[in-house]
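Tokens in:
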């Protein structure tokens, strides 16, 4: 039997007398009812119309068991019942309204979340000309709804987990039953359940803890901010991981080639998509190798350059007081600092800063004889090329810097050997049993139809073979 005054003391102690705890007393047909919730986490309209109103009007229907509230509350949100106060408070932390009834048995919590959340809009780094423009938000329920809308089937499964000793963050696994490998789902679920951490603030926390090689330079979890991309990955046998409070949904297993794709690739003609993918690959190639090769040619193998190009380089670099590697490092650091400053400054001022700052500083440095015009040009081309694959900017920028040091010390031979070493290392990586470089290493002939070059959807009716799925048929082409 609940004594409200006694329970309120327990609640205040459990919440350490926090100032945002709200208690609201009601009286209906001689029964005392108290509502407990957190200020700002509740939709007041839902509270008044769906909870307070029905309780006052139908108080005579309340029995000693709080489960009698099921027939009283006319709210669209669900009502849950608990036998212990600690379990009930876990729901209050997430936006639930605790209902205490004097003399009744048990605790009732009605979900009435109503905190402010960002509207659905197009993600800033995944804009498209054709295709859906919806993007995930920080609202967990909104994200689940965006996914569910694309699957009018009971085969789409969500599994709820809680991670974080203090944050108790809601994490949801989603997959398509009959397509995803059950062993993969169980393995990911097991790893998430093993996570013992104070709190999960964003999905990137989960991503780091799910990787097999946590100190690797290369990420081993996919991510997306668009529900249409996630839907296509779920249909390909992957598992999605939704984290409450994060607009980024993780996907596993992950292959490096996924970051060379774009959602618009599947809404354009295959020929155009193939050309664009080749341009992305070419952009990354220039971004990684241009600065290191330029330093290597200047320091060691200048004799292999065409004579006219060599004369141009000599004329451009004559009078520069720095060595080739020092000059390149100054230029790279300058562009990195400009990039960081433009991101963190107010949007319109940041755009002006990046454009005007790059032009003025670059031109001034060349005129002052600190940097050569070729060095500024190569650094600019490299920096632009990095953003052909936005999700890999951090990794490729570090590799670019490594190649600059190797090019200065060992020349082009060192760059070649280091490329072989990096390729071997990356080829050895796996993401939950799937080769990291599939379908290129190892070569999976069936998957090459949607790799660097893309054929028509009719030409690859089979799901990604590297995933090892039993349900392989995506399209029956009669």
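Residues out:
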């Amino acid at each position: 039997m609940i004594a409200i005054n006694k329970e309120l003391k327990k609640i205040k102690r459990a919440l350490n007398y926090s100032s945002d705890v709200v208690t609201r007393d009601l009286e209906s047909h001689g029964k005392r009812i108290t509502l407990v919730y957190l200020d700002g986490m509740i939709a007041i309209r839902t509270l008044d119309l769906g909870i307070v109103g029905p309780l006052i009007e139908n108080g005579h229907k309340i029995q000693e068991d709080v489960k009698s509230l099921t027939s009283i509350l006319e709210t669209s949100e669900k009502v849950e019942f608990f036998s212990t106060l600690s379990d009930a408070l876990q729901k209050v932390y997430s936006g639930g309204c605790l209902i205490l009834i004097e003399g009744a048995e048990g605790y009732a919590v009605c979900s009435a979340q109503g905190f402010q959340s960002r509207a659905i809009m197009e993600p800033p780094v995944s804009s498209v000309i054709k295709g859906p423009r919806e993007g995930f938000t920080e609202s967990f329920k909104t994200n689940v709804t965006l996914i569910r809308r694309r699957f009018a089937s009971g085969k789409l499964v969500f599994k709820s987990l809680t991670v974080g000793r203090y944050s108790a963050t809601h994490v949801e696994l989603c997959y398509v039953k009959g397509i995803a490998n059950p062993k993969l789902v169980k393995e990911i679920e097991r790893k998430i359940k093993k996570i013992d951490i104070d709190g999960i603030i964003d999905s990137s926390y989960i991503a780091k803890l799910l990787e097999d090689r946590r100190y690797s330079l290369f990420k081993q979890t996919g991510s997306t901010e668009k529900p249409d991309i996630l839907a296509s990955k779920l249909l390909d046998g992957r598992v999605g991981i939704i984290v409450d409070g994060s607009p980024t949904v993780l996907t596993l297993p992950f292959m490096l080639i996924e970051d060379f794709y774009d959602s618009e690739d599947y809404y354009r003609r295959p020929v155009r998509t193939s050309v664009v993918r080749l341009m992305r690959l070419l952009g990354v190639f220039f971004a990684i190798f241009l600065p290191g090769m330029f330093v290597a040619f200047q320091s060691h193998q200048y004799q292999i350059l065409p004579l006219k190009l060599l004369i141009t380089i000599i004329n451009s670099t004559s009078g520069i007081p720095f060595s080739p590697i020092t000059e390149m490092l100054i230029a790279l650091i300058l562009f990195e600092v400009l990039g960081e400053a433009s991101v963190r400054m107010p949007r319109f001022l940041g755009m002006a800063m990046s454009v005007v700052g790059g032009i003025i500083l670059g031109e001034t440095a060349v005129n002052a004889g600190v940097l050569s015009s070729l060095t500024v040009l190569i650094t600019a081309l490299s920096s632009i090329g990095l953003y052909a694959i936005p999700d890999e900017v951090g990794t490729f920028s570090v590799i670019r810097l490594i190649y600059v040091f190797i090019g200065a010390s060992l020349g082009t031979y060192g760059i070649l050997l280091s490329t072989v070493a990096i390729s071997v290392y990356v080829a050895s990586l796996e993401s939950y049993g799937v080769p990291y470089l599939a379908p290129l290493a190892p070569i999976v002939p069936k998957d090459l139809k949607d790799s660097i070059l893309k054929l028509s959807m009719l030409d690859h009716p089979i799901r990604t073979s590297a995933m090892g799925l039993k349900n392989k048929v995506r399209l029956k082409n009669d």
